[in-house]
Amino acid sequence: MAKQGKVYINGRFIGFHNNPEKVTRDLIGARREGKIDPIVNVAFHGDTNEVYINTDAGRVQRPLIVVENGKSLLTEDLVKQVTDKKLTWKDLVAKGIIEYLDAEEEENTLVAVSEPELNKNHTHLEVDGAAIFSIVTGMIPYVTHNMAGKSLHGAKMFKQALGFGASNLAIRTDTESYMLQYPQKHMIKTKVMDLIGMAKRPQVINMVVAILPYRGFNMLDAVVLNKGAVERGMGRALYYRNYESFENRYPGGQKDQFERPTEETVGFMGEEYYKHIGEDGLPELETVLKEKAVVIGKTSPPRFLEEINEFGVVKEKRRESSILSRKGKSGIVDKVVITEDEAGNKLVKVKVRSEMTPELGDKFSSRHGQKGVIGAIVAEEDMPFSEDGVRPDLILNPHSVPSRMTVGHLLEMLGGKAYSVSPETPDGLDGTPFEEVPYEELKDMLKARGFRSDGKETFYDGVTGEKLEGELFVGVVGYQRLFHMVSHKLQARSRGPVQILTRQPTEGKEKEGGLRFGEMEGETLVGHGAAMLLHEKLIDDSDKTVELVCEKCGIIGINDQIRNKKYCPVCNGSRVYPVEMTYSFKLLLDELKALGILPRIVLRDKVQ
Protein backbone atom coordinates (compact mmCIF):
# COMPACT_ATOMS: atom_id res chain seq x y z
CA MET A 1 0.00 0.00 0.00
CA ALA A 2 1.26 3.33 -0.95
CA LYS A 3 2.28 5.66 1.80
CA GLN A 4 -0.43 8.11 2.86
CA GLY A 5 0.01 11.61 1.42
CA LYS A 6 -1.11 15.00 2.74
CA VAL A 7 -3.60 17.02 0.70
CA TYR A 8 -3.66 20.83 0.73
CA ILE A 9 -6.17 23.22 -0.83
CA ASN A 10 -4.85 26.77 -1.31
CA GLY A 11 -2.08 26.02 1.19
CA ARG A 12 -4.48 24.78 3.89
CA PHE A 13 -4.12 21.17 5.09
CA ILE A 14 -7.42 19.27 4.70
CA GLY A 15 -6.46 15.61 5.31
CA PHE A 16 -4.69 12.46 4.11
CA HIS A 17 -5.18 10.22 1.06
CA ASN A 18 -4.00 6.64 0.65
CA ASN A 19 -2.91 7.11 -2.97
CA PRO A 20 -1.86 10.74 -3.59
CA GLU A 21 -0.63 10.06 -7.15
CA LYS A 22 -3.94 8.49 -8.15
CA VAL A 23 -6.00 11.38 -6.69
CA THR A 24 -3.82 13.82 -8.66
CA ARG A 25 -4.41 11.89 -11.91
CA ASP A 26 -8.17 11.60 -11.20
CA LEU A 27 -8.56 15.34 -10.51
CA ILE A 28 -6.64 16.32 -13.66
CA GLY A 29 -8.74 13.82 -15.68
CA ALA A 30 -11.96 15.30 -14.22
CA ARG A 31 -10.76 18.78 -15.16
CA ARG A 32 -10.08 17.68 -18.75
CA GLU A 33 -13.57 16.17 -18.95
CA GLY A 34 -15.09 19.48 -17.81
CA LYS A 35 -16.26 18.19 -14.41
CA ILE A 36 -13.92 20.61 -12.58
CA ASP A 37 -13.38 24.28 -13.45
CA PRO A 38 -10.36 24.82 -15.78
CA ILE A 39 -8.78 27.35 -13.38
CA VAL A 40 -8.17 24.61 -10.77
CA ASN A 41 -4.58 23.32 -10.72
CA VAL A 42 -3.38 20.11 -9.07
CA ALA A 43 0.28 19.32 -8.37
CA PHE A 44 1.83 16.24 -6.75
CA HIS A 45 5.15 16.72 -4.92
CA GLY A 46 6.89 13.35 -4.98
CA ASP A 47 9.72 14.36 -2.63
CA THR A 48 7.33 15.23 0.23
CA ASN A 49 4.41 12.98 -0.88
CA GLU A 50 1.98 15.92 -0.88
CA VAL A 51 -0.84 17.04 -3.18
CA TYR A 52 -1.37 20.77 -3.66
CA ILE A 53 -4.70 21.92 -5.12
CA ASN A 54 -4.79 25.62 -6.07
CA THR A 55 -7.96 27.57 -6.82
CA ASP A 56 -7.04 30.99 -5.42
CA ALA A 57 -6.72 34.25 -7.33
CA GLY A 58 -3.44 35.86 -8.33
CA ARG A 59 -1.87 32.81 -10.01
CA VAL A 60 -0.49 33.26 -13.51
CA GLN A 61 -1.66 30.47 -15.81
CA ARG A 62 -0.62 29.68 -19.35
CA PRO A 63 -2.22 27.44 -22.00
CA LEU A 64 -0.57 24.22 -23.20
CA ILE A 65 -1.70 21.47 -25.57
CA VAL A 66 -2.22 18.12 -23.81
CA VAL A 67 -0.02 15.22 -25.02
CA GLU A 68 -0.94 11.54 -24.51
CA ASN A 69 1.37 8.63 -25.44
CA GLY A 70 3.74 10.99 -27.26
CA LYS A 71 1.02 12.41 -29.52
CA SER A 72 -0.63 15.85 -29.43
CA LEU A 73 -4.40 15.82 -28.83
CA LEU A 74 -4.70 18.81 -31.19
CA THR A 75 -5.05 16.92 -34.47
CA GLU A 76 -5.04 18.41 -37.98
CA ASP A 77 -8.78 17.77 -38.18
CA LEU A 78 -9.37 19.90 -35.06
CA VAL A 79 -7.09 22.66 -36.39
CA LYS A 80 -9.17 22.71 -39.62
CA GLN A 81 -12.39 22.99 -37.59
CA VAL A 82 -10.92 25.96 -35.68
CA THR A 83 -9.83 27.56 -38.98
CA ASP A 84 -13.34 27.06 -40.40
CA LYS A 85 -14.73 28.62 -37.17
CA LYS A 86 -16.66 25.46 -36.29
CA LEU A 87 -14.69 25.26 -33.01
CA THR A 88 -13.49 28.04 -30.71
CA TRP A 89 -10.66 28.27 -28.19
CA LYS A 90 -13.17 27.75 -25.35
CA ASP A 91 -14.35 24.52 -27.00
CA LEU A 92 -10.77 23.20 -27.05
CA VAL A 93 -10.38 24.04 -23.33
CA ALA A 94 -13.75 22.38 -22.53
CA LYS A 95 -12.73 19.22 -24.42
CA GLY A 96 -9.48 18.98 -22.45
CA ILE A 97 -7.28 19.44 -25.55
CA ILE A 98 -5.83 22.67 -24.19
CA GLU A 99 -5.42 23.24 -20.46
CA TYR A 100 -4.18 26.10 -18.31
CA LEU A 101 -1.31 25.34 -15.94
CA ASP A 102 0.09 27.47 -13.15
CA ALA A 103 3.73 27.50 -12.01
CA GLU A 104 3.20 24.75 -9.43
CA GLU A 105 1.51 22.22 -11.73
CA GLU A 106 4.05 23.01 -14.46
CA GLU A 107 6.76 21.54 -12.21
CA ASN A 108 5.31 18.06 -12.93
CA THR A 109 5.29 18.44 -16.71
CA LEU A 110 7.69 17.91 -19.62
CA VAL A 111 6.81 20.42 -22.33
CA ALA A 112 7.91 20.16 -25.96
CA VAL A 113 8.47 23.37 -27.94
CA SER A 114 7.49 21.85 -31.30
CA GLU A 115 5.65 18.73 -32.49
CA PRO A 116 8.68 16.94 -34.10
CA GLU A 117 10.36 16.90 -30.64
CA LEU A 118 7.56 14.84 -29.03
CA ASN A 119 8.35 11.49 -27.38
CA LYS A 120 6.66 9.18 -24.85
CA ASN A 121 7.90 11.24 -21.86
CA HIS A 122 6.28 14.52 -22.92
CA THR A 123 3.07 15.57 -21.19
CA HIS A 124 2.39 18.85 -22.99
CA LEU A 125 3.18 20.79 -26.16
CA GLU A 126 3.60 24.57 -26.55
CA VAL A 127 0.78 26.28 -28.46
CA ASP A 128 3.54 28.34 -30.10
CA GLY A 129 7.24 28.63 -29.25
CA ALA A 130 6.93 32.41 -28.82
CA ALA A 131 4.27 31.88 -26.13
CA ILE A 132 7.07 31.06 -23.66
CA PHE A 133 7.98 34.74 -23.61
CA SER A 134 6.17 37.79 -22.27
CA ILE A 135 4.78 40.34 -24.74
CA VAL A 136 7.79 42.62 -24.31
CA THR A 137 10.39 39.84 -24.56
CA GLY A 138 8.51 38.45 -27.57
CA MET A 139 9.22 41.71 -29.40
CA ILE A 140 12.98 41.07 -29.37
CA PRO A 141 13.98 39.48 -32.71
CA TYR A 142 16.27 36.44 -32.63
CA VAL A 143 15.83 36.44 -28.83
CA THR A 144 16.70 32.72 -28.62
CA HIS A 145 20.26 33.55 -29.73
CA ASN A 146 20.92 35.87 -26.76
CA MET A 147 22.01 35.25 -23.21
CA ALA A 148 18.84 35.33 -21.06
CA GLY A 149 20.06 38.18 -18.84
CA LYS A 150 20.65 40.50 -21.79
CA SER A 151 17.24 39.74 -23.30
CA LEU A 152 15.62 40.66 -19.97
CA HIS A 153 17.69 43.82 -19.97
CA GLY A 154 16.54 44.64 -23.49
CA ALA A 155 12.92 43.99 -22.50
CA LYS A 156 13.26 46.44 -19.60
CA MET A 157 14.48 49.15 -21.95
CA PHE A 158 11.45 48.82 -24.23
CA LYS A 159 9.58 50.62 -21.46
CA GLN A 160 12.10 53.48 -21.45
CA ALA A 161 12.18 53.99 -25.22
CA LEU A 162 10.78 57.12 -26.83
CA GLY A 163 8.30 56.71 -29.63
CA PHE A 164 4.82 57.62 -30.69
CA GLY A 165 3.42 56.90 -27.24
CA ALA A 166 -0.12 58.27 -27.52
CA SER A 167 -2.24 59.28 -30.51
CA ASN A 168 -3.99 61.97 -28.42
CA LEU A 169 -0.74 63.58 -27.23
CA ALA A 170 -1.93 67.02 -28.36
CA ILE A 171 -4.76 67.07 -25.80
CA ARG A 172 -3.07 65.14 -22.97
CA THR A 173 -1.64 66.94 -19.94
CA ASP A 174 0.70 64.34 -18.43
CA THR A 175 3.28 65.77 -16.02
CA GLU A 176 6.04 64.53 -18.32
CA SER A 177 5.84 62.98 -21.77
CA TYR A 178 8.11 62.37 -24.74
CA MET A 179 7.69 61.90 -28.47
CA LEU A 180 10.25 60.70 -30.98
CA GLN A 181 10.02 62.97 -34.02
CA TYR A 182 10.89 60.50 -36.77
CA PRO A 183 10.11 56.98 -35.53
CA GLN A 184 10.44 54.11 -38.02
CA LYS A 185 8.96 50.66 -38.47
CA HIS A 186 11.05 47.69 -37.41
CA MET A 187 12.89 46.01 -40.26
CA ILE A 188 13.08 42.73 -38.34
CA LYS A 189 9.77 42.13 -36.61
CA THR A 190 8.10 39.37 -34.63
CA LYS A 191 4.55 37.98 -34.66
CA VAL A 192 3.96 39.54 -31.24
CA MET A 193 4.59 42.98 -32.78
CA ASP A 194 1.94 42.33 -35.42
CA LEU A 195 -0.55 41.19 -32.77
CA ILE A 196 -0.18 44.35 -30.67
CA GLY A 197 0.01 46.72 -33.67
CA MET A 198 3.57 47.88 -33.10
CA ALA A 199 3.85 49.19 -36.68
CA LYS A 200 1.19 51.80 -35.86
CA ARG A 201 3.18 53.04 -32.84
CA PRO A 202 6.84 52.75 -33.92
CA GLN A 203 9.61 53.46 -31.43
CA VAL A 204 12.93 52.75 -33.16
CA ILE A 205 15.35 54.43 -35.53
CA ASN A 206 16.88 52.06 -38.09
CA MET A 207 20.59 52.89 -37.94
CA VAL A 208 23.46 51.72 -40.11
CA VAL A 209 25.77 50.27 -37.45
CA ALA A 210 29.46 49.42 -37.87
CA ILE A 211 31.36 47.46 -35.24
CA LEU A 212 34.82 48.94 -34.59
CA PRO A 213 36.67 51.04 -32.01
CA TYR A 214 36.76 54.73 -32.94
CA ARG A 215 39.77 56.60 -31.47
CA GLY A 216 38.73 55.74 -27.92
CA PHE A 217 35.44 57.67 -28.07
CA ASN A 218 33.38 54.48 -27.87
CA MET A 219 35.32 52.65 -25.20
CA LEU A 220 33.35 50.63 -22.66
CA ASP A 221 29.65 51.02 -23.58
CA ALA A 222 29.83 54.40 -25.32
CA VAL A 223 28.69 54.79 -28.92
CA VAL A 224 29.77 57.23 -31.63
CA LEU A 225 27.08 58.97 -33.69
CA ASN A 226 27.26 60.51 -37.15
CA LYS A 227 26.74 64.29 -36.84
CA GLY A 228 25.24 64.48 -40.33
CA ALA A 229 22.58 61.92 -39.40
CA VAL A 230 21.77 63.80 -36.17
CA GLU A 231 21.41 67.06 -38.13
CA ARG A 232 19.04 65.28 -40.54
CA GLY A 233 16.77 64.45 -37.57
CA MET A 234 17.99 61.04 -36.37
CA GLY A 235 17.00 60.49 -32.74
CA ARG A 236 15.41 63.92 -32.34
CA ALA A 237 12.63 64.02 -29.76
CA LEU A 238 10.17 66.34 -28.08
CA TYR A 239 9.89 66.59 -24.30
CA TYR A 240 6.67 67.92 -22.78
CA ARG A 241 6.40 69.26 -19.24
CA ASN A 242 3.07 70.21 -17.69
CA TYR A 243 2.64 72.98 -15.09
CA GLU A 244 -0.66 73.49 -13.32
CA SER A 245 -2.13 75.76 -10.67
CA PHE A 246 -5.59 76.65 -9.38
CA GLU A 247 -7.24 79.60 -7.62
CA ASN A 248 -7.63 78.35 -4.07
CA ARG A 249 -10.42 79.71 -1.88
CA TYR A 250 -9.69 80.68 1.73
CA PRO A 251 -11.97 81.17 4.78
CA GLY A 252 -13.30 84.72 4.84
CA GLY A 253 -14.08 84.86 1.11
CA GLN A 254 -10.53 85.51 -0.04
CA LYS A 255 -8.98 83.61 -2.94
CA ASP A 256 -5.95 83.37 -5.20
CA GLN A 257 -5.89 85.32 -8.45
CA PHE A 258 -4.24 84.58 -11.81
CA GLU A 259 -2.65 87.89 -12.77
CA ARG A 260 0.67 89.57 -13.46
CA PRO A 261 2.02 90.57 -10.00
CA THR A 262 2.71 94.29 -9.51
CA GLU A 263 5.56 95.96 -7.62
CA GLU A 264 3.30 96.29 -4.55
CA THR A 265 3.05 92.48 -4.33
CA VAL A 266 5.01 90.99 -1.42
CA GLY A 267 7.80 88.88 -2.94
CA PHE A 268 7.82 90.67 -6.34
CA MET A 269 10.77 89.17 -8.27
CA GLY A 270 11.44 91.88 -10.87
CA GLU A 271 9.99 92.80 -14.26
CA GLU A 272 12.23 90.43 -16.27
CA TYR A 273 10.59 87.43 -14.58
CA TYR A 274 7.10 88.41 -15.77
CA LYS A 275 7.80 89.48 -19.35
CA HIS A 276 6.58 86.08 -20.68
CA ILE A 277 3.04 86.41 -19.26
CA GLY A 278 0.05 88.65 -20.00
CA GLU A 279 -2.20 90.63 -17.65
CA ASP A 280 -4.23 87.45 -16.97
CA GLY A 281 -1.07 85.75 -15.65
CA LEU A 282 -0.92 83.27 -18.54
CA PRO A 283 1.68 82.99 -21.32
CA GLU A 284 0.86 83.15 -25.03
CA LEU A 285 1.32 80.06 -27.21
CA GLU A 286 4.82 79.57 -28.69
CA THR A 287 6.37 81.93 -26.10
CA VAL A 288 9.99 80.94 -25.40
CA LEU A 289 10.50 80.30 -21.67
CA LYS A 290 13.92 80.16 -20.03
CA GLU A 291 14.53 78.03 -16.92
CA LYS A 292 13.21 79.52 -13.67
CA ALA A 293 10.90 81.86 -15.66
CA VAL A 294 7.31 82.51 -14.54
CA VAL A 295 4.94 80.14 -16.39
CA ILE A 296 1.73 81.01 -14.52
CA GLY A 297 1.47 84.38 -12.72
CA LYS A 298 -0.51 84.15 -9.48
CA THR A 299 -1.01 86.17 -6.31
CA SER A 300 -2.46 85.02 -2.98
CA PRO A 301 -4.16 87.01 -0.22
CA PRO A 302 -2.05 88.02 2.82
CA ARG A 303 -1.67 85.42 5.56
CA PHE A 304 -3.04 87.82 8.21
CA LEU A 305 -5.66 90.58 7.97
CA GLU A 306 -4.12 94.07 8.06
CA GLU A 307 -5.27 96.81 10.40
CA ILE A 308 -7.65 99.47 9.04
CA ASN A 309 -5.86 102.75 8.28
CA GLU A 310 -7.10 106.24 9.27
CA PHE A 311 -9.51 106.41 6.32
CA GLY A 312 -11.10 103.11 7.30
CA VAL A 313 -9.88 101.36 4.12
CA VAL A 314 -7.86 98.17 4.05
CA LYS A 315 -5.39 97.96 1.14
CA GLU A 316 -4.48 94.29 1.16
CA LYS A 317 -0.90 93.50 0.20
CA ARG A 318 -1.12 90.35 -1.89
CA ARG A 319 1.62 87.69 -1.88
CA GLU A 320 3.51 86.45 -4.95
CA SER A 321 2.77 82.74 -5.56
CA SER A 322 3.59 82.25 -9.25
CA ILE A 323 4.59 78.90 -10.79
CA LEU A 324 8.14 78.88 -12.19
CA SER A 325 9.56 76.59 -14.86
CA ARG A 326 11.79 73.87 -13.43
CA LYS A 327 15.54 74.12 -13.24
CA GLY A 328 17.26 73.05 -16.46
CA LYS A 329 13.94 72.69 -18.30
CA SER A 330 13.48 75.65 -20.64
CA GLY A 331 11.11 75.34 -23.58
CA ILE A 332 8.27 76.77 -25.67
CA VAL A 333 4.64 77.12 -24.52
CA ASP A 334 2.75 74.42 -26.43
CA LYS A 335 -0.73 74.54 -24.92
CA VAL A 336 -2.68 76.52 -22.30
CA VAL A 337 -5.82 74.92 -20.85
CA ILE A 338 -8.25 76.84 -18.61
CA THR A 339 -10.80 74.71 -16.77
CA GLU A 340 -12.17 73.97 -13.27
CA ASP A 341 -11.24 71.40 -10.63
CA GLU A 342 -13.72 69.26 -8.65
CA ALA A 343 -14.37 72.06 -6.14
CA GLY A 344 -15.21 74.58 -8.88
CA ASN A 345 -11.94 76.52 -8.57
CA LYS A 346 -10.38 77.94 -11.74
CA LEU A 347 -7.63 75.57 -12.92
CA VAL A 348 -4.89 76.38 -15.43
CA LYS A 349 -2.56 73.89 -17.12
CA VAL A 350 0.38 75.05 -19.24
CA LYS A 351 2.21 72.53 -21.40
CA VAL A 352 5.81 73.41 -22.27
CA ARG A 353 7.62 71.75 -25.18
CA SER A 354 11.39 71.30 -25.53
CA GLU A 355 13.29 69.87 -28.47
CA MET A 356 15.81 67.25 -27.39
CA THR A 357 18.55 66.79 -29.99
CA PRO A 358 20.94 63.89 -29.21
CA GLU A 359 23.98 65.19 -27.33
CA LEU A 360 26.97 63.75 -25.48
CA GLY A 361 25.74 61.58 -22.62
CA ASP A 362 22.29 60.72 -24.03
CA LYS A 363 21.36 57.04 -23.94
CA PHE A 364 20.65 54.70 -26.84
CA SER A 365 20.00 50.96 -26.87
CA SER A 366 19.24 48.14 -29.28
CA ARG A 367 16.51 45.62 -28.43
CA HIS A 368 19.14 43.15 -27.21
CA GLY A 369 20.29 45.04 -24.11
CA GLN A 370 23.26 46.66 -25.91
CA LYS A 371 22.84 50.04 -24.24
CA GLY A 372 25.30 52.89 -24.30
CA VAL A 373 25.65 56.65 -24.00
CA ILE A 374 26.94 58.90 -26.76
CA GLY A 375 30.72 59.30 -26.39
CA ALA A 376 31.18 61.52 -29.45
CA ILE A 377 29.17 63.01 -32.28
CA VAL A 378 31.63 62.97 -35.18
CA ALA A 379 31.43 65.15 -38.29
CA GLU A 380 30.11 63.15 -41.25
CA GLU A 381 33.27 63.67 -43.30
CA ASP A 382 35.40 62.16 -40.50
CA MET A 383 33.35 58.96 -40.22
CA PRO A 384 34.77 55.80 -41.81
CA PHE A 385 33.16 55.00 -45.17
CA SER A 386 32.66 51.84 -47.24
CA GLU A 387 33.65 51.27 -50.86
CA ASP A 388 30.11 52.31 -51.83
CA GLY A 389 30.45 55.54 -49.82
CA VAL A 390 28.11 54.44 -47.01
CA ARG A 391 28.94 56.08 -43.67
CA PRO A 392 27.53 54.41 -40.52
CA ASP A 393 25.05 56.28 -38.32
CA LEU A 394 26.42 54.61 -35.18
CA ILE A 395 29.71 52.93 -34.29
CA LEU A 396 29.56 50.16 -31.68
CA ASN A 397 32.56 48.91 -29.74
CA PRO A 398 33.48 45.30 -30.66
CA HIS A 399 34.22 44.50 -27.00
CA SER A 400 30.56 44.94 -26.09
CA VAL A 401 29.49 41.79 -28.01
CA PRO A 402 31.59 38.71 -27.00
CA SER A 403 31.20 38.83 -23.21
CA ARG A 404 27.47 39.59 -23.44
CA MET A 405 26.85 36.93 -26.07
CA THR A 406 24.15 38.96 -27.86
CA VAL A 407 24.29 36.99 -31.11
CA GLY A 408 20.71 38.16 -31.76
CA HIS A 409 22.09 41.69 -32.20
CA LEU A 410 24.52 40.47 -34.87
CA LEU A 411 21.77 38.50 -36.63
CA GLU A 412 19.52 41.57 -36.58
CA MET A 413 22.34 43.59 -38.17
CA LEU A 414 22.64 41.01 -40.95
CA GLY A 415 18.85 40.73 -41.34
CA GLY A 416 18.40 44.51 -41.40
CA LYS A 417 21.01 44.76 -44.14
CA ALA A 418 19.40 41.94 -46.14
CA TYR A 419 15.96 43.57 -45.79
CA SER A 420 17.31 46.99 -46.83
CA VAL A 421 18.46 45.60 -50.20
CA SER A 422 15.49 43.26 -50.82
CA PRO A 423 12.44 45.09 -52.19
CA GLU A 424 10.46 41.85 -52.43
CA THR A 425 9.91 41.76 -48.62
CA PRO A 426 7.86 44.94 -47.97
CA ASP A 427 6.59 44.01 -44.48
CA GLY A 428 9.93 43.25 -42.84
CA LEU A 429 11.71 40.00 -42.11
CA ASP A 430 10.42 37.61 -39.46
CA GLY A 431 12.53 37.36 -36.31
CA THR A 432 9.90 35.55 -34.19
CA PRO A 433 11.54 33.17 -31.68
CA PHE A 434 11.81 29.58 -33.04
CA GLU A 435 10.38 30.67 -36.41
CA GLU A 436 12.86 33.32 -37.55
CA VAL A 437 14.34 33.65 -41.04
CA PRO A 438 17.42 31.40 -40.74
CA TYR A 439 20.98 32.71 -40.93
CA GLU A 440 21.65 30.81 -44.18
CA GLU A 441 18.70 32.51 -45.87
CA LEU A 442 19.95 35.95 -44.82
CA LYS A 443 23.35 35.11 -46.31
CA ASP A 444 21.72 34.06 -49.60
CA MET A 445 19.68 37.30 -49.75
CA LEU A 446 22.84 39.39 -49.37
CA LYS A 447 24.77 37.29 -51.88
CA ALA A 448 21.99 37.66 -54.45
CA ARG A 449 22.31 41.46 -54.18
CA GLY A 450 26.06 41.48 -54.71
CA PHE A 451 27.06 41.86 -51.03
CA ARG A 452 29.34 39.61 -49.05
CA SER A 453 27.27 36.92 -47.35
CA ASP A 454 28.98 37.41 -43.95
CA GLY A 455 27.96 41.09 -43.75
CA LYS A 456 31.55 42.38 -43.76
CA GLU A 457 32.78 45.24 -45.91
CA THR A 458 36.02 47.06 -46.63
CA PHE A 459 36.13 50.50 -44.99
CA TYR A 460 38.33 53.58 -45.28
CA ASP A 461 39.30 56.04 -42.57
CA GLY A 462 37.33 59.28 -43.02
CA VAL A 463 40.14 61.41 -41.57
CA THR A 464 43.23 60.01 -43.37
CA GLY A 465 41.56 58.23 -46.29
CA GLU A 466 43.61 55.09 -45.61
CA LYS A 467 42.10 51.65 -46.02
CA LEU A 468 41.30 50.08 -42.64
CA GLU A 469 42.98 46.78 -41.85
CA GLY A 470 40.54 43.90 -41.94
CA GLU A 471 36.85 44.16 -42.81
CA LEU A 472 34.14 45.71 -40.67
CA PHE A 473 30.90 43.94 -39.84
CA VAL A 474 28.20 46.44 -40.80
CA GLY A 475 24.41 46.15 -40.84
CA VAL A 476 21.13 47.84 -39.94
CA VAL A 477 19.72 47.65 -36.41
CA GLY A 478 16.62 49.18 -34.85
CA TYR A 479 18.00 51.40 -32.07
CA GLN A 480 15.85 53.00 -29.39
CA ARG A 481 16.44 56.40 -27.87
CA LEU A 482 15.79 56.14 -24.12
CA PHE A 483 14.36 58.90 -21.96
CA HIS A 484 17.57 59.24 -19.91
CA MET A 485 18.70 62.67 -21.16
CA VAL A 486 21.93 64.13 -19.84
CA SER A 487 20.43 67.63 -19.76
CA HIS A 488 17.82 66.41 -17.24
CA LYS A 489 20.48 64.87 -15.00
CA LEU A 490 23.28 67.44 -15.18
CA GLN A 491 23.89 68.89 -11.73
CA ALA A 492 26.51 71.24 -10.28
CA ARG A 493 26.76 73.51 -7.25
CA SER A 494 29.28 75.95 -5.81
CA ARG A 495 27.21 77.74 -3.15
CA GLY A 496 23.54 77.41 -2.41
CA PRO A 497 20.79 76.76 0.13
CA VAL A 498 21.23 74.63 3.25
CA GLN A 499 18.81 72.54 5.33
CA ILE A 500 17.42 74.31 8.38
CA LEU A 501 17.97 71.44 10.84
CA THR A 502 21.48 70.23 9.97
CA ARG A 503 22.78 73.26 8.02
CA GLN A 504 24.19 70.82 5.45
CA PRO A 505 23.60 71.48 1.72
CA THR A 506 20.14 70.53 0.47
CA GLU A 507 19.76 67.36 -1.59
CA GLY A 508 18.28 67.06 -5.06
CA LYS A 509 18.76 68.86 -8.34
CA GLU A 510 15.56 70.88 -7.99
CA LYS A 511 16.64 72.33 -4.65
CA GLU A 512 20.09 73.30 -6.02
CA GLY A 513 21.53 70.55 -3.86
CA GLY A 514 25.07 69.26 -3.60
CA LEU A 515 26.38 65.83 -4.44
CA ARG A 516 26.77 63.71 -1.33
CA PHE A 517 30.35 63.03 -0.32
CA GLY A 518 29.47 59.98 1.76
CA GLU A 519 31.17 57.50 4.06
CA MET A 520 32.77 55.51 1.25
CA GLU A 521 34.08 58.58 -0.58
CA GLY A 522 35.54 59.82 2.71
CA GLU A 523 37.29 56.48 3.22
CA THR A 524 38.99 56.78 -0.16
CA LEU A 525 40.53 60.09 0.94
CA VAL A 526 41.60 58.49 4.23
CA GLY A 527 43.25 55.72 2.19
CA HIS A 528 45.11 58.32 0.13
CA GLY A 529 46.15 60.23 3.24
CA ALA A 530 44.61 63.42 1.77
CA ALA A 531 43.76 64.91 5.16
CA MET A 532 43.26 68.50 4.05
CA LEU A 533 40.95 67.51 1.20
CA LEU A 534 38.98 65.33 3.65
CA HIS A 535 38.67 68.31 5.98
CA GLU A 536 37.58 70.55 3.13
CA LYS A 537 34.90 68.19 1.78
CA LEU A 538 33.40 67.03 5.09
CA ILE A 539 33.66 70.29 7.06
CA ASP A 540 34.47 73.44 5.06
CA ASP A 541 32.17 72.59 2.10
CA SER A 542 29.43 71.19 4.32
CA ASP A 543 28.31 72.57 7.70
CA LYS A 544 31.34 74.09 9.39
CA THR A 545 30.53 76.15 12.47
CA VAL A 546 32.46 77.73 15.34
CA GLU A 547 31.01 77.09 18.82
CA LEU A 548 32.21 78.30 22.23
CA VAL A 549 33.29 75.49 24.57
CA CYS A 550 33.82 75.89 28.34
CA GLU A 551 37.37 74.85 29.36
CA LYS A 552 36.19 73.65 32.79
CA CYS A 553 32.82 71.96 32.03
CA GLY A 554 33.47 70.91 28.43
CA ILE A 555 29.99 71.90 27.23
CA ILE A 556 28.83 74.40 24.58
CA GLY A 557 28.91 77.99 25.89
CA ILE A 558 26.61 80.97 25.23
CA ASN A 559 27.45 84.07 23.21
CA ASP A 560 25.08 86.77 24.54
CA GLN A 561 25.43 89.47 21.89
CA ILE A 562 22.96 91.84 23.60
CA ARG A 563 25.01 92.01 26.81
CA ASN A 564 28.24 91.41 24.88
CA LYS A 565 29.07 88.53 27.18
CA LYS A 566 30.40 85.01 26.52
CA TYR A 567 29.92 82.54 29.34
CA CYS A 568 29.28 78.92 30.34
CA PRO A 569 25.64 78.14 31.23
CA VAL A 570 26.71 75.59 33.91
CA CYS A 571 29.54 77.18 35.89
CA ASN A 572 28.89 80.75 34.67
CA GLY A 573 32.64 81.07 34.01
CA SER A 574 33.96 83.19 31.18
CA ARG A 575 36.76 80.79 30.12
CA VAL A 576 34.99 79.72 26.91
CA TYR A 577 36.99 79.27 23.72
CA PRO A 578 35.96 79.02 20.03
CA VAL A 579 36.17 75.48 18.61
CA GLU A 580 35.70 74.54 14.93
CA MET A 581 33.26 71.66 14.43
CA THR A 582 30.50 70.54 12.08
CA TYR A 583 27.02 71.79 12.93
CA SER A 584 25.73 68.21 12.74
CA PHE A 585 28.13 67.32 15.59
CA LYS A 586 26.81 70.22 17.66
CA LEU A 587 23.27 68.96 16.86
CA LEU A 588 24.27 65.49 18.11
CA LEU A 589 25.43 67.02 21.41
CA ASP A 590 22.06 68.81 21.74
CA GLU A 591 20.13 65.60 21.03
CA LEU A 592 22.18 63.71 23.64
CA LYS A 593 21.30 66.42 26.17
CA ALA A 594 17.63 65.92 25.31
CA LEU A 595 18.09 62.20 26.17
CA GLY A 596 19.49 63.13 29.59
CA ILE A 597 23.13 62.50 28.66
CA LEU A 598 25.58 65.35 29.20
CA PRO A 599 28.46 65.06 26.71
CA ARG A 600 31.67 66.95 27.52
CA ILE A 601 34.39 68.17 25.16
CA VAL A 602 37.93 68.06 26.54
CA LEU A 603 39.96 71.08 25.37
CA ARG A 604 43.70 71.05 24.73
CA ASP A 605 45.97 73.67 23.21
CA LYS A 606 45.86 73.59 19.41
CA VAL A 607 49.11 72.13 18.02
CA GLN A 608 50.47 74.38 15.30
Automatic annotation (TrEMBL):
Highest taxon of source: Archaea
Gene Ontology terms for molecular function: DNA binding; DNA-directed RNA polymerase activity; ribonucleoside binding; zinc ion binding
Pfam (any one): RNA_pol_Rpb2_7
An annotated GO BP: DNA-templated transcription
Positions of the DNA-directed RNA polymerase subunit 2 hybrid-binding domain: 137-511
Broadest EC class assigned to this enzyme: transferase
EC number of the protein: 2.7.7.6
Catalysed reaction equations from the record: RNA(n) + a ribonucleoside 5'-triphosphate = RNA(n+1) + diphosphate
Compartment(s): Cytoplasm
Domain (RNA polymerase Rpb2): residue spans on this chain: 7-68, 89-122, 513-602
GO CC, one annotated term: DNA-directed RNA polymerase complex
Xref: InterPro entries: DNA-dir_RNA_pol_su2 (IPR015712), DNA-dir_RNAP_su2_dom (IPR007120), DNA-dir_RNAP_su2_hyb_sf (IPR037033), RNA_pol_bsu_CS (IPR007121), RNA_pol_Rpb2_4 (IPR007646), RNA_pol_Rpb2_5 (IPR007647), RNA_pol_Rpb2_7 (IPR007641), RNA_pol_RPB2_OB-fold (IPR014724)
NCBIfam families: rpoB_arch
Listed name of the protein: DNA-directed RNA polymerase subunit beta
